[in-house]
What we know:
About 70% of the residues lie in helices and about 0% in strands. It contains 15 helices and two strands. It is elongated and about 155 Å long.
Amino acid sequence: xxxxxxxxxxxxxxxxxxxxxxxxxxxxxxxxxxxxxxxxxxxxxxxxxxxxxxxxxxxxxxxxxxxxxxxxxxxxxxxxxxxxxxxxxxxxxxxxxxxxxxxxxxxxxxxxxxxxxxxxxxxxxxxxxxxxxxxxxxxxxxxxxxxxxxxxxxxxxxxxxxxxxxxxxxxxxxxxxxxxxxxxxxxxxxxxxxxxxxxxxxxxxxxxxxxxxxxxxxxxxxxxxxxxxxxxxxxxxxxxxxxxxxxxxxxxxxxxxxxxxxxxxxxxxxxxxxxxxxxxxxxxxxxxxxxxxxxxxxxxxxxxxxxxxxxxxxxxxxxxxxxxxxxxxxxxxxxxxxxxxxxxxxxxxxxxxxxxxxxxxxxxxxxxxx
Length: 370
């Protein structure tokens, strides 16, 4: 039993020595895959028909003597463009900031100046400036059509005030009331279009004109609308003259009803499918075409039956002119006016020149009273 124990002890000693030798040799082999950070895929042995190529094992001493491949050379990047961008961007940022500071300082100085100036004003001057500012804001919010009729409304308001001046009553009756029995019959056909004696009459007409001003100006344009409005006033008064002469009812009349009816008829005829309503009865709606038919029918009935509350001949004449102008008059008059305008200027220029130089008879400024 003693010799068996000695043999086991000797075998264990030899196993320990062989294990240490193997570990020592494995430390001496360089690991190329770990050095470069990736593992190289092992090559598969090439097998041919009947021939097997075996890999030759490299001893640790030969592997240590082999030289490693040099690392690839990486070119050094240029930092010139990033440097220039940094300098330029930083400089522009500070320059822009300086400009903003200057503007803010200038704005603060201006605000201080205007604040001091405002404190020096009196209460009345401040209220006046605020009123002008409100008027300017209101004027900027208006459409082109509303701006156009603002002058017409202002002129009607001035004429209304003139009716309240006792000294001007005689002149107002002579020039601002139209009747075929008067000595002056032509000029009142235009001036009576801007004349109202009753405040309610003027307010009703101007409200309707203001309401449909944007539509009529968008259809005709500002210049054509002014020509249309003045022509409608004269033509409606001419229809009234004719009816009064035929019926021997020579009572005078005044107001913008004829021109306003022409505006209404032109808008309604252009968009007959538009929906309309009454101010006090918003639930009642009707089309523009039906409203135009009702107005023409009512004025025709008033003219035939001899109603005296309104001058129905003026209303009817204005409505018929508005319908006709939208349908045919725009093409016959406005689009073909250029040759007539040119002929008028050619005929007017030599006469005007002769009147200036020789003092002969020239063109008068307008029709005088007869």
